[in-house]
Input
Amino acid sequence: MTFIKEIKNRKGFKIDENNKLVFDGCCLEDLASIYGTPSYFFSETIIREQCQEYREAFKKWNIDYEILYAGKAFLVQAMAHIINEEGLSLDVSSGGEIYIALEGGFPAERIYFHGNNKSEEELNFAIKRGIGTIVIDNLYELELVEQIANILNKKVNILVRAIPGVDTHTHKKIRTGQIDSKFGIPIQDFLYIFPAILAKKHLIYQGVHCHIGSQLFDMQSYYLAIREMIDMIKAIEKNYEIKTSVLNLGGGLGVRYTEDDTALSINQYVHQLVGQIKIMCNENQLSIPKILVEPGRSIIADAGVTLYRVGPIKQAKGMTRYLIVDGGMTDNLRPSLYDARYEALIVNKFDEEALETVTVAGKCCESGDILIKDIKLPHAENGDLIVLFTTGAYHYSMSSNYNGFPRPPVVLVNKGKHGFMVKGETYQYMNQNHAFPEWLTPKKVT
Ligand code: LLP
Output
């Protein structure tokens, strides 16, 4: 087989008149010569299309809604700018992400602040800067936010995160809705703690939040979570005569990394999610609250690709054939952390037959640093250019400097235009915060 079919399956990819592979109008071989390898490329066209698909899917329903992009999947200032232009709100999980968003010109009032151990410093920063909503994770935090809001004399909108007690069919490291979770308040405790929430003078209760997991294909888990959350909203209304205006169902929609993944489209997901909420609200004679979702991966995963150059190729007799590339777990932690699978092709040989089964390995000092185990590719040689698909979500945001590798550049492409969103790190940049305690005399290298 050749990869022509795979290319047609991939958003943003085309073969141009010179028989070169292009991504959002940019020739990949040219991009590799300009920016070097490894490097991340993001298609602005795809990012905007994904946002639009979410907007269109919600618009069909006559309900109040808000779409929050989950910044943990990928957040840099330029991304915050695009998300703002697309009219989405933003979910952040740290003071650092708030800072990126604000520097990127994102309006504070459309930011939702998550996290299961927000520090006093982070909360101070968030409240001072007028962050729109804080998602309260636990009772300790409830008290802390009230104290800080009191000192700053501010009113703060809050959502409260519940653990709905729903287990999902995804990798155990990205499940969050099960009762034994480190995020949120168990749903069975919710009613008892509610008076404490209402007693806070500076906190304005808006509603409830849950997030059951990530890379989900199965709507049944969402339906179970919706049932739990709606029962809870109903019980809050009955017991305390308090209206819950907002139901935030988190993110989690899965994407297609390989042909084994049967992902729902954004439109199908929203259709089924909102449809179910409507049914369950009707059954409970409950008016439909404002619906919030927090998609990360389903907006950004398909918009990103990573380019690598093949270095040595190794094969002991009868053993694995390793193509060793110039990146690895420092720019893509997902295979080592979650056994994640990817598809790739050799850019300069995309139309050649895939005859060899190889393993694409990284250059880190870890045997587990394997990007793709057993993939069929054309006969590879040193210097070939490899593109890994679907690398937009949780790649750059989970990258590291392990082994002293600088993080690669992050480049935005759009219909033939291209430019940095983040420059590649240098050795100097990586060392800028290194210091010598006063009792150590630095040795000057001559
Ligand atoms: N909202 C909350 C509260 C979350 O914790 C997450 C993801 C999201 C929204 C966005 O979920 P998404 O739509 O992207 O699935 N590093 C892992 C994924 C961790 C997800 C953490 N929370 C990975 O690479 O698969």
